[in-house]
Amino acid sequence: MWSFLGRFFRGIWWLVDALRRVVVTFVFVLVLALVLAFVLYPGPSVPDGAALVLRPAGTLVERVRVNDPLGIIRSGGAPVAQTSLPDLLEAVRAAREDKRIKALVIETDLLAPGGLSKLAELREAVLDFKSGGKPVYARGERFLQGQYFLASIADEVHLAPDGFVLLPGLARNVSYFKGALDALGVKVHVFRVGEYKSFSEPFTRTDMSDEDRESSRVLLDELWQGMRERVAGTRKLAPGALDRYVEDYAGLLQATGGDAARAARDAGLVDALSQRDEWRELLKARVGEGGDGKDYRRIDADDYLAAVRAARPHENARVAVLVAQGAIVDGAADDDSVGGDSLAAQIRAAREDEAVKAVVLRIDSPGGSAWASEVIRRELELTRRAGKPVVASMSSVAASGGYWVAAGADEIWARPETLTGSIGVFAMFPELTEPLARLGVTTDRVATGPLAGTLDPRRPLEPALAKAMQLGVEHSYRRFVEIVASARRKDLAEVDAVARGRVWTGAAALRLGLVDKLGGVEDAVTAAAKRARLEHYETVWPTGEINLRNLLLRRLMSVVGPVGITSESPLARLVGGLQAQAADLLRWNDPQHLYGHCLCDAP
Predict the structure, then answer these.
(1) Cα(426)–Cα(367) distance, rounded to whole angstroms?
(2) What is the reported pLDDT for 74?
(3) What is the DSSP annotation of 244-290?
(4) CB–CB of 361/322 below 8 Å?
(5) Is 300 exposed, middle or buried (0-12, 13-18, 19+ CB in 10 A)?
(6) Which helix or strand (DSSP H or E) is residue 478 part of?
């Protein structure tokens, strides 16, 4: 029996040891493959007479989230949800003067809904490309509104025979939770300054306030008018043609027997209907065949940009473009937020870098912590005092805390479609005494002062604390207005008249003196370089730290190609939006519980 047990356990140990060696060998081979892929994989080359292909996947962003590649592999291929707008702009600008690039091809099927200003900025870069005499071709299996807005800039727009062009216009839908909170017995105490500061209204109302409805109507009308005029202009449509398509879509479908693709073609929105193989053959005829004869001569934007950057000479002087993307939080940041301390450290590093001669802060944020916003603004102010120009460039949203940050710059640029302003401050405090009482949970206390332990959702809000919080909000609002007045060289009353929490488009903000000029990030970089008196310079985009493991894995994945690119259903977008809102609330960590946050999503 002892001999049998000995053989049994020796066999178990042999299996465990063999498995260990297999795992170690596998990991070693994997690491070796990653290193070889990173070091030995040749850079892309640009074929002569090629078409540059833009096929943005997911949402256009200022800075792509650094996903964990191992997580992607474990999940079997998570959706690739983001495309860098700066990368696309750089590729299109470079291609305009590149004699190797013959045409531009845009395919929008993977593009997700996102900020109108980003699409408009990319659209203008494509328009500049066209001005160089090179053609632009676009196709979609179907076109949602944002996808068509981008594609409509092309010289020739194709649609799948079974596709459609959907142009419903712009809308703003807000969920209100007061009824649910009342049913649960939850009280939400709100302290704010500004009748247009609507961020807290979903927790205290069941519908839009008159002020929020008025402001939203003005914003949407202005944005829609600009979008409609651009599409009609590039498609050479009569002023009322696009309006009829939007307002009488059902009637147009009825006239074509329900054929949505033919209705779009008859309305002049697309030039032709083509299958995928027909599209490919058309591009072969227009651009030329590739080396294998199976496809047209082409290069994707990522490969083209890598080739261009590798051949570009480095300059000693630099303009650093830092990105503030997401809600502003106190302390460090994650991939979906702007950390006050994290961004301040990046600004400080740029200020102390002798090669960096100017700083551009690209803002795509609805705001957040008032404390963190001031930490960032102060670092920008110190950078200006050190003699380095600072220019703020507003993307889709730069409101409330986002505008607070921008006030630290020498000069502010915005897109006409940017949502900005929302100069206001609020605080919220939930009271959970009633729902806890229903569960039989009570709270008692011992304290050394009248306000000790009172900021606790298990207890009713003390009137003295409520008064203190309102006074704090009013003081922070005055501080906000003073900062803006000083930065914009205006009287306090003049700033207060356009503040009160109201949101403005970039075009309106220019008229009101809240921004200096209209333009995109490249315009802001040029302005910063001019202020620094630079003729030759390099634009750099400092990013957060990426560990070696992720760097190697991402390079390997770039070799094998993207995985798991999917489109979301409306239900998935709804659930994802609610999850994102909940995650944002959990990030709220202002030490004084004061927030400059805007309830404004980029349409």
Answers:
(1) 12
(2) 43
(3) HHHHTHHHHHHHTTT-HHHHHHHTTS-SEE--HHHHHHHHHHHH-B-
(4) yes
(5) middle
(6) helix 463-488
Beta-bridge mates of residue 338: 328
Q: Give the list of residues 6+ apart from residue 419 with CB closer than 8 angstroms, or none.
A: 219, 396, 397, 398, 399, 503, 504, 505, 506, 598, 600, 602
β-bridge pairing 419-421 and 156-159:
unpaired
pTM score: 0.85
Q: Report CA-CA distances (Å) from 99 to 94, 476, 513, 535, 579.
A: 10, 55, 42, 24, 47
Burial of 196 (0-12, 13-18, 19+ CB in 10 A): buried
Contact 417, 117 (CB under 8 A): yes
Residue matched to tokens 């939770």:
177
How far apart are the C-alpha atoms of 346 and 337, rounded to whole Å?
15
Decide if 395 contacts 522 (C-beta within 8 A).
no
Q: Which of 102-116, 320-334, 350-364, 546-560 has the lowest mean pLDDT?
A: 546-560
Which of 385, 370, 319, 382 is CA-nearest to residue 598? 370
CA 140, CA 105: separation in Å to the nearest integer?
A: 11
Are the CB atoms for 547 and 69 separated by under 8 Å?
A: no
- In sequence order, the β-bridge partners of residue 61 are 84
Half-sphere exposure for 332 (CA within 13 Å, toward CB): 4
Q: What is the pLDDT of residue 558?
A: 47
Give the model confidence (pLDDT) of 477-513 as tens digits: 999 999 999 999 999 999 999 999 999 999 999 999 9
The amino acid at residue 205 is R
Cα gap 579→600, rounded to integer Å = 17
Which residues are known to be catalytic? 197, 400
Q: Of 323, 321, 344, 348, which is closest to residue 335 (Cα–Cα)?
A: 323
Nearest to 223 by CA among 146, 165, 147: 146
Distance between CA 93 and CA 27 in Å, rounded? 42
Tell me, what's the pLDDT at 429?
85
Tell me which DSSP letter residue 458 carries.
T
CA torsion through residues 193, 194, 198, 203, sign: positive
pLDDT of residue 2: 63
Helices then strands (H, E): number in the chain?
23, 22
Question: Is the distance from CB of 139 to CB of 107 less than 8 angstroms?
Answer: yes
